[in-house]
Amino acid sequence: AQSVTQLGSHVSVSEGALVLLRCNYSSSVPPYLFWYVQYPNQGLQLLLKYTTGATLVKGINGFEAEFKKSETSFHLTKPSAHMSDAAEYFCAALNSGYSTLTFGKGTMLLVSP
Amino acid sequence: KAGVTQTPRYLIKTRGQQVTLSCSPISGHRSVSWYQQTPGQGLQFLFEYFSETQRNKGNFPGRFSGRQFSNSRSEMNVSTLELGDSALYLCASSLVAGARNEQFFGPGTRLTVL
Q1: Which of A12, A51, B17, B106 would staple A110 via disulfide (CB 3.0–4.6 Å)?
Q2: A108, exposed or middle or buried, with CB in 10 Å at 0-12, 13-18, 19+?
């Protein structure tokens, strides 16, 4: 079964600093990978997804992620954090049957002024 | 276009009771999936419905059930509530079935079991 590991339940950055949220998945061929963001008292919003093709994926709000098969990673980055980026971020992967998503435990991003 | 709506937003029940949660997908979306979110277990898939048929089911006891109506609206039911059922229940809709299709999430129903 597919598994997704997010390193760090909380990540703190200063406004304007680089954001790096880590995600590793268990090997699956081929993987479909997603990053979602959840703001307080709201549902999940899709940031970006990797299916096939270009390994650097650009998403909304200035986020991007790079699929690295050799490292089984799909880390999320943003060059400059904004206060409005404070939220919980979830990495997810399709299971081998392509029918359901397996989510990581989530990483809470805290942005300080 | 209106997003996914879930009712009620908050619910308080006692152990042993049953509860029904409702989800209205985005207009034109025919697939509805349900997830349970708890601090300990994170987000876990409950089930997926497409064209009134359950396509997939997660690893939850039979106390958790659902259905989908001809207008794609979906309900999930939890019988004989336990304290551990306290969670945020999220509904997501997509145009067609399968998680490869982008899923749009509702705000969730916060269930508290006392």
Answers
A1: A12
A2: middle
Label residues A25-60 b or e (16+ Cβ within 10 Å = b): beebeebbbbbbbbeeeebbebbbbbeeeeeebebe
Confidence of residue A96 (pLDDT cuts 50, 70, 90): low
Which residues of chain B, if any, have pLDDT below 50?
none
Say whether B103 and A101 touch across the interface (CB within 8 A): yes
**A89: its two tokens:** 């971020």
Euclidean distance between the first and the last CA atom of chain A, given in angstroms as a whole number: 41
pLDDT tens digit sequence for A13-72: 999 999 999 999 986 656 789 999 999 888 899 999 998 788 899 999 999 999 998 899
Type of residue numbered B18:
Q
Pick from A43, A46, A94: CB nearest B108 = A43
Distance from CA of A83 to the nearest CA of B (A): 22
Q: Are the C-beta atoms of A73 and A23 separated by less than 8 Å?
A: yes
Q: Tell me which chain A residues have a C-beta less than 8 angstroms from the C-beta of B108.
A: 42-43
Task: Decide: residue B67, CB within 10 A, 0-12 exposed, 13-18 middle, 19+ buried.
Answer: middle
Q: What is the rounded CA–CA span in Å between residue B50 and residue A99? A: 12
